[in-house]
Amino acid sequence: MRIAVFNTKPYDRRFLSEANAGFGHALHFLEPRLEPATASLAAGHQAVCVFVNDMVDAEVLETLAAGGTRLVALRCAGFNNVDLAAAQRLGIEVVRVPAYSPHAVAEFTLGLLLAVDRKIPRAWARVRENNFALDGLIGRNLHGRTVGVVGTGKIGALVARSLRLGFGCEVLASDLYPDPALEAAGIRYVPRDTLLREAEIISLHCPLTPETHHLIDAAAIAAARDGLVIVNTSRGALIDTGALIEGLKSRKIGAVALDVYEQEADLFFEDLSNEIVSDDQFQRLLTFPNVLITGHQAFLTEEALGAIAETTLRSAADAEAGKMLQNRVDTGRIAASK
Ligand code: NAD
């Protein structure tokens, strides 16, 4: 199949090319992201392959359809950037990668937590300047602390288990569907309000829905324990950034580690080191010594990238062969994966 692969970075090219040895698609790698101005680049390709920040709205889909494209293959789980009704109207199938490696994200979450809680980035910066003083680097043991895990699906369950069984934390959990296997491991499901009130550390692993939007807001921060540590590797808008900044300024919040950010679409995945970044909230967050931010890289492991490439190219092969598409996006489930 001829596939126009938009928004490609060197790692996308590497993993897709390697996986393609088993499929033999004609991959046309393109640097620009898919948007109205670039959609015509896909003319003559039966499929386009896109990522989280590509724009697959009705206008783009019309151009794709006119150019002969019949498949949109998302190399990610979320599909909130696709106008599914327009795709359906134009006869374009949409496939995604529902799960690639929850371990990648869970392990990165623990890495962020340990790094911010034990002040590892600050220590590293000091040692590079031959400053071996330890003053200001005092951390806390994870062992025995109360951690709240919001959302115990594929990723949250791994984080909760590691914290409970590996580190010996007291783990409180909140989910619409409690997992009996986690309860058997000693993890205690409590109402979300109780979790937000009692946890010393909160790790977010639920999807972004109208119900979870800004679940960490000014009221949640006010009710939380002093010195609260927050880790978010899920979706930026689970946290009200303004309230977070106020919580840090008042010292109510002890530390924050973020791999996702509310306005990340304007920043992440690009090298902006020569630019003036005009997002004042993001710049303010960077000034706190107890805030650690990474640019949405929790998924970025060899295993996850390999699995994403394999699943995406297999879906394209199945579409070409007229087989049933296992990872086809169903319009009725649009809110579930946001
Ligand atoms: P999942 O669907 O397996 O689990 C999500 C869980 O959240 C489910 O158990 C669901 O019941 C629960 N949930 C839904 N609404 C809830 C609510 N209101 N309160 C509490 N729990 C609720 O998803 P997953 O694969 O574990 O992914 C979790 C999150 O991680 C997603 O938001 C995803 O977008 C994000 N993610 C981030 C990265 C990254 O690189 N940073 C990579 C992959 C996934």
Structure notes:
The protein has 338 residues and is an alpha/beta fold. The protein folds into two domains: 2-100 and 301-321, 3-Layer(aba) Sandwich (Rossmann fold); 102-293, NAD(P)-binding Rossmann-like Domain (Rossmann fold). The chain has twelve helices and twelve strands. The chain has helices spanning 10-20, 58-66, 84-90, 102-117, 120-128, 154-166, 180-184, 192-198, 218-223, 241-249, 280-286, 302-320; strands at residues 2-5, 26-29, 47-50, 71-74, 93-95, 146-150, 170-174, 188-189, 201-204, 228-232, 253-258, 291-293. The strands form two sheets. It has a seven-stranded parallel β-sheet, with helices on both faces. A five-stranded parallel β-sheet has the order 2-1-3-4-5, sandwiched between helices. Helix 3 (84-90) links the parallel strand 4 and strand 5 (93-95). Helix 1 crosses helix 12 (302-320) and helix 2 (58-66) packs parallel to helix 3 (84-90). The longest helix is centred in the C-terminal third of the chain and has 19 residues, at 302-320. Residues 78, 102, 105, 150-156, 174-177, 205-207, 209, 211-212, 233-235, 259-260, 296, 298-299 line the site of nicotinamide-adenine-dinucleotide.
